[in-house]
Amino acid sequence: MNTHIAIFASGSGTNAENIIQYFSKSKSIEVSLVVSNRSDAYVLERARLLKVPELIITKKEFSESEYYVLTKLRDFHIDFIVLAGFLLQIPKYLIQAYPGAIINIHPALLPKYGGKGMYGDRVHEAVVMAGESESGITIHYIDEHYDEGSTVFQAKCPVLPGNTPADVAKKVHALEYEWFPKIIERVVNSL
């Protein structure tokens, strides 16, 4: 039986594209849906190009339309949710509907540089400003708080003297592309 994954993303979607391509060869795991809260998110175009159905669910729909959101996910037989640059907080009803089946990737070594408003370049800027000697990625389960769910996996990269936030971002992206699909696969196969 196939496990059907929905990828939630708010931006460009490079991680989503990488995950879709990784699982295109899988016999047991399928990316069945890409969900975005923004109609102008480039991730939707990536999904179209890769022939994965896409769905826009607005912030208001997420917060006020529990039945609509859950029905849409059930229509696509979604078993597991992957957050890949999704900027909305996941509502409690979704966490309850998918217990232990929602993971997120964060571009830093949590618990440092997490929480509301800490995403993308803001994280890398904070890491460089603080003079950290390393950064990395954290893949974690979702709970009711931003970036506080239990950690599944971390990978590190050095932050060298003179590195800019863009330098750190490049290293972190490389870790995301290498590890996120593999860890998704490991978690899904352990369900």
Describe it for me?
This protein is 39% helix and 22% strand. Helix 2 links the parallel strand 2 and strand 3. By secondary structure, it is α/β, with parallel strands linked by helices. Helix 1 packs parallel to helix 7 and helix 6 crosses helix 7. The radius of gyration is 16 Å and the shape is globular.
3D shape: globular
Q: Write down the Rg.
A: 16 Å
Amount of helix: 25-40%
Total strands: 7
Mean pLDDT: 95
Strand order of the largest sheet: 3-2-1-4-5-6-7
Number of helical segments with 4 or more residues:
7
Residue fraction in strands: 15-25%
Low-confidence runs of at least 5 consecutive residues: none
Give me the strand/helix succession.
EHEHEHHEHEHEEH
Structure classification? alpha/beta
Distance between the termini: 13 Å
Sheet of most strands? 7 strands, mixed
From the structure above, extract its key features:
191 residues; alpha/beta; seven-stranded mixed β-sheet; 39% helix
Give the helices and strands, then pairings.
Blueprint lengths: L2 E6 L5 H10 L5 E8 L5 H8 L4 E3 L2 H6 L1 H10 L4 E4 L8 H6 L4 E5 L14 H9 L4 E8 L9 E8 L6 H25 L2
Parallel strand pairs: 1-2, 1-4, 2-3, 4-5
Antiparallel strand pairs: 5-6, 6-7
Helix pairs in contact: 1-7, 6-7
